[in-house]
């Protein structure tokens, strides 16, 4: 979305009282040092930052060194990918008549790039993000804004195509938005909260532009976005990994921004678990859907963001303090998630046979889950080989629903062990009709209906059964599935899903989501020209063409985080 030329100097003369609250006015001089040529990493023979183990970053750690050699003869596929970076200026083969793999690109690719570029949002002449949707047939609502989570696949597409500047601009603009006072009614939010979205306001009279951010005060249910800060850290690491430019992450403002986000989620309180306690609607599922408590999406993103921050934080006095806290939290979080959120056939049978009201440190049923609360569908859904991280675990409550985003991020962040990652892919293959069907990919499974839907969603007319977040099919999830497939060495699964999507996405004008048990119908309230549907497809295609792109969005397992010792039959692969 282009904007008319503006007088930047005139913008600097705007008075404070002329800015609508909570509008954010920018002075670009604060980041003038970023206009200098970025310092690039020598990645030819240096050890990848991602390959440092947590033990090297524990208390009493030595200063960071970047000259340790990489074992270039390693047989592990992912370690080979980790040593490869997508340098600035390298463009995907999709912008040429023939791709780098020697195969003609699908005709949809050019159309997708045109759609993605039409969605660009400009602020004072510079691209700063992509609009959520360009569907002019519907009321704008907040689809005319730049969402942090929505921009992630767009950012990855531009990074993979050798266009990092828009990503840098986005990171800096959202960082400045974080620094402004955030209030909902009379309550002030934490300093580290990142916005859910922002938009550019144009003043034709003054010939000026300003930004306005939404920190949850305009959202459905007035819930702050817990995931925005995590996505911001993940994107900062993706930018650094893709370009080799460490100067952005090392900027004092970026270091402070990360510490503020981490302060929110590493603070001590009454929690007895290392997971994050969240309100309903605080992530991609931003409406009442029973994901309050400890949702898998937030826990997986939390784990991923902690691992990315560990690689990005400087080891100065402030950074070392956070690094020590991160290391401790990662060990506790990985153990908790792998022990209590993981479900396979053996674990399901164990829960089915649980005793209740156990009181001691030797209790097997530690959360006092009632076996009678097991839903009937889960017994048929669980294959002989396979498993997944369930949706939620809290006292006397386990949400057995499958959530795509959380499980894919668990694979990419190595929250899932290699055996668990393989089991998740086995589950997807075994339950293809249920999770992929005629349009990939179910955001959650199964759908809630009748009395359960009324109680949990509050009779939400948008989240009726097999629609929207309640079992709807979301094409944007293609990029996450593809990344997980590449990391686990199962690209054929992603290729099959992409071919299904290519049969309809362009013809249907890039819908936001599809309805129905098989994802056969365009969603009843689905917006067309949905940007992250476009970007998700492009990222999936480019990642299959050049698997080295995986390095910017995935992290290898840390050998110091010991997996749970028990093994089930589904892990004997």
From TrEMBL:
EC number in record: 3.2.1.26
InterPro entries for the chain: 6-hairpin_glycosidase_sf, 6hp_glycosidase-like_sf, Glyco_hydro_100
Example GO molecular function: sucrose alpha-glucosidase activity
Superkingdom as given in the UniProt entry: Eukaryota
Alphabetical UniProt keywords: Carbohydrate metabolism, Glycosidase, Hydrolase
Catalyzed reactions per annotation: Hydrolysis of terminal non-reducing beta-D-fructofuranoside residues in beta-D-fructofuranosides
GO biological process: sucrose catabolic process
Pfam families the UniProt entry points to: Glyco_hydro_100 (PF12899)
Family stated for the protein in its record: Belongs to the glycosyl hydrolase 100 family.
UniProt function note: Invertase that cleaves sucrose into glucose and fructose.
Protein's name according to its UniProt entry: Alkaline/neutral invertase
Species this chain originates from: Hibiscus syriacus
């Amino acid at each position: 979305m282009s904007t008319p030329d503006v007088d930047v100097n005139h913008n600097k003369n705007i008075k404070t009282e002329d800015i609508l609250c909570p509008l954010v006015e920018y002075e670009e001089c604060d980041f003038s040092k970023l206009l200098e040529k970025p310092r690039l990493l020598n990645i030819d023979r240096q050890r990848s930052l991602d390959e440092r183990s947590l033990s090297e970053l524990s208390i009493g750690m030595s200063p960071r060194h970047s000259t340790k050699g990489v074992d270039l003869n390693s047989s592990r596929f992912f370690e080979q990918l980790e040593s490869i970076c997508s340098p600035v200026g390298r463009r995907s083969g999709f912008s040429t008549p023939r791709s780098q793999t020697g195969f003609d690109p699908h005709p949809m690719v050019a159309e997708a790039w045109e759609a993605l570029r039409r969605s660009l949002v400009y602020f004072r002449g510079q691209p700063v993000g992509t609009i959520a949707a360009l569907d002019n047939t519907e009321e704008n609502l907040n689809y005319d804004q730049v969402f942090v989570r929505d921009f992630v696949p767009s950012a990855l597409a531009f990074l993979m195509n050798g266009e990092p500047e828009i990503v840098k601009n986005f990171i800096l603009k959202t960082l400045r938005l974080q620094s402004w006072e955030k209030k909902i009614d009379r309550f002030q939010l934490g300093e580290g909260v990142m916005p859910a979205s922002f938009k550019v306001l144009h003043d034709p009279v003054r010939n000026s532009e300003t930004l306005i951010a939404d920190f949850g005060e305009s959202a459905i249910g007035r819930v702050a976005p817990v995931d925005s800060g995590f996505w911001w850290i993940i994107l900062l690491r993706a930018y650094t990994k893709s370009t080799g430019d460490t100067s952005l992450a090392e900027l004092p403002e970026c270091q402070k921004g990360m510490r503020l986000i981490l302060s929110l989620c590493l603070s001590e309180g009454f929690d007895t678990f290392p997971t994050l306690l969240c309100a309903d609607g605080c992530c991609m599922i931003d409406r009442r859907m029973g994901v309050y408590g400890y949702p898998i999406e937030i826990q997986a993103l939390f784990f991923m963001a902690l691992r990315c921050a560990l690689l990005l934080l400087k080891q100065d006095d402030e950074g070392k303090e956070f690094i020590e806290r991160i290391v401790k939290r990662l060990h506790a979080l990985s153990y908790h998630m792998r022990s209590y959120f993981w479900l396979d056939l053996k674990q399901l049978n164990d829960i089915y046979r649980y005793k209740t009201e156990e009181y001691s440190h030797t209790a097997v049923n530690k959360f006092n889950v009632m076996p009678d609360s097991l839903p009937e569908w889960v017994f048929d859904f669980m294959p002989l080989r396979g498993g997944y991280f369930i949706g939620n675990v809290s006292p006397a409550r386990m949400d057995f629903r499958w959530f795509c985003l959380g499980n894919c991020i668990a694979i990419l962040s190595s929250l899932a062990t290699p055996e668990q990652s393989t089991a998740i892919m086995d589950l997807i293959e075994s339950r293809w009709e249920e999770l992929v069907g005629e349009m990939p990919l179910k955001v959650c499974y199964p759908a809630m209906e009748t009395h359960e839907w009324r109680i949990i969603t509050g009779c939400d007319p948008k989240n009726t059964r097999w629609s929207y977040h309640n079992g709807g099919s979301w094409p944007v999830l293609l990029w996450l599935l593809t990344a997980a497939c590449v990391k686990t060495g199962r690209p054929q699964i992603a290729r099959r899903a992409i071919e299904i999507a290519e049969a309809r996405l362009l013809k249907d004008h890039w819908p936001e989501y599809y309805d129905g048990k098989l994802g056969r119908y365009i969603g009843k309230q689905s917006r067309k020209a949905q940007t992250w549907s476009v970007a998700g497809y492009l990222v999936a295609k480019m990642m299959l063409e050049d698997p080295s792109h995986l390095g910017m969005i995935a992290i290898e397992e840390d050998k110091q985080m010991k997996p749970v010792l028990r093994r089930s039959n589904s892990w004997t692969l």
